[in-house]
User: Which sequence fits this backbone?
């Protein structure tokens, strides 16, 4: 596998970016990086603390710096945070420095996958469904704008999603596939 490939997973929280990213990076022999974990390592604290002390604006500034640095590396699979697309500079870096895969999921699936997760600052509210619906309406067009490939993840096993991504990458000649049937 060529290590000049950069693959960026975008999508809302609960779409499966981290889970699918780990599996896919292994298949493609790419270094897996989760941008949220990278930000936490750089700051020495967790994202809820950053949101609490610096607000979303402070977090997004840290995220922008991390995305700029990370997308300059090569041979990586980057799982991004759900709000990464809110800044034009991030969208530009992602779209021009690698292949973007949008993992699309429904609000209902997001709720099911994130309902017990206390590390999601934007969902610590009385009505998380309304928050997710609002985020989807704002962010879906931005994910679509930069996506080279769009994959629906609702009710799907992560391995099946990985196989579809591999197949679509091979069909687009982004990766070599000696036997394309491997990914069907």
Assistant:
């Amino acid at each position: 596998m060529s290590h000049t490939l950069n693959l960026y997973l975008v999508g809302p929280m609960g779409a499966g970016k981290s889970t699918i990213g780990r599996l896919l990076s292994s298949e493609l022999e790419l270094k897996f990086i989760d941008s949220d974990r990278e930000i936490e390592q750089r700051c020495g604290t967790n994202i809820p603390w950053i949101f609490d002390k610096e607000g979303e604006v402070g977090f997004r500034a840290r995220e922008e710096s991390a995305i700029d640095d990370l997308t300059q590396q090569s041979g990586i699979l980057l799982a991004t945070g759900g709000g990464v697309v809110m800044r034009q500079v991030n969208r530009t870096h992602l779209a021009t420095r690698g292949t973007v895969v949008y993992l699309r999921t429904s609000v209902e699936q997001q709720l099911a996958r994130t309902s017990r997760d206390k590390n999601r600052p934007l969902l610590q509210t009385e009505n998380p469904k309304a928050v997710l619906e609002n985020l989807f309406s704002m962010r879906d067009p931005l994910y679509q704008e930069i996506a080279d490939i769009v994959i629906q993840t609702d009710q799907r096993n992560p391995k099946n999603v990985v196989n579809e991504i591999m197949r679509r990458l091979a069909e687009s000649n982004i990766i070599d596939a000696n036997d394309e049937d491997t990914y069907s």
In short: The chain has a mean pLDDT of 91. The helical segments are 17-28, 35-43, 47-70, 88-97, 107-114, 128-146, 158-171.
